[in-house]
Amino acid sequence: MLNVEKLIVMEGNIHVLVCKLEQLFPQTFFDSMEAVQYRWMYPFERFLHSLKNKVKNKARVDASICEAYLLEETSTTRIPHNVDSGEGSSSTPPISIFNYLRRPGGKVITYFLDHVDLEDATAHLYILLNCEHVEPYLDIYIEFIRELNPTTLGVEIDSDISSTFPTWFKQYVLNSENNIQDSLLVNLAWGPKRKVESWPMYIINGYKFHTIV
Fold it and tell me: Does residue 196 share a domain with residue 110?
């Protein structure tokens, strides 16, 4: 049974209790329609406020909010370009230079390289200079050049590497006296196959390349 006297006392203490509660809770805890600072509003109320601001056609409130929300989402969502969706090579033994994520694009074209084709020599040199398996032999070749001519400059060494290193590497690896039995090095020494495949577009390491055949 309610005690009227206690209710009167509680009514007199309401303003004191509210003041104490306001020290712990924001004002919207007591009245969500009360005009308070923006930072005190609950996240959901702020979200509703942003949705209401998107309304341009008051006759179609729901559709107007949906259209504005979808437009904002599609315009602010960043779709990464040149995504490497392929997978690295899983062949054994692996060649590190071919184990990058990549994705070709367009129609593949198959053709044959000439024995004296500059493209063949350039591709072979690029693979040798960027393959970690060949780095020890590149150091041996540089030491070999310095022994022949101790005064050789760095520019001259780079020129010799570009012109003669693939041939020297092939002779060195295939020489039975060096006892190199690694099939990977032997395949690298022989150079690329004459039958190659080319795509008009190739994406690797986040970059898109357009090829010309």
Answer: yes
Q: Give 93-123 pLDDT, tens digit per residue.
A: 467 777 777 788 888 888 777 655 666 678 8
Distance of CA 65 to the CA centre of its chain: 34
Let me know: does 195 contact 112? Beta carbons within 8 Å.
yes
Q: Are 46 and 125 in a shared domain?
A: no
Identify the bridge partners of residue 103 per DSSP, sorted by sequence position: 203
Q: Considering the domain boundaries, does residue 12 fall inside one?
A: no
Q: What is the pTM of this model?
A: 0.48
Q: How far apart are CA 65 and CA 76, in angstroms?
A: 17
Label the pairing between strands 102-105 and 109-112. Answer: unpaired
Query: How many other C-beta atoms can be found within 10 angstroms of the C-beta atom of residue 120?
Result: 17
3-state secondary structure of 104: strand
DSSP code of 80? P
Residue pLDDT, tens place only, 56-90: 887 887 888 888 888 887 776 655 555 555 554 44
CA-CA distance, 32 to 22, in Å (whole number)? 14
Q: Does residue 164 share a domain with residue 115? A: yes
Residue with tokens 């295939």: 174
pLDDT digits (tens, 9 = 90+) for 3-48: 888 888 888 888 888 778 777 776 666 655 555 555 555 676 777 7
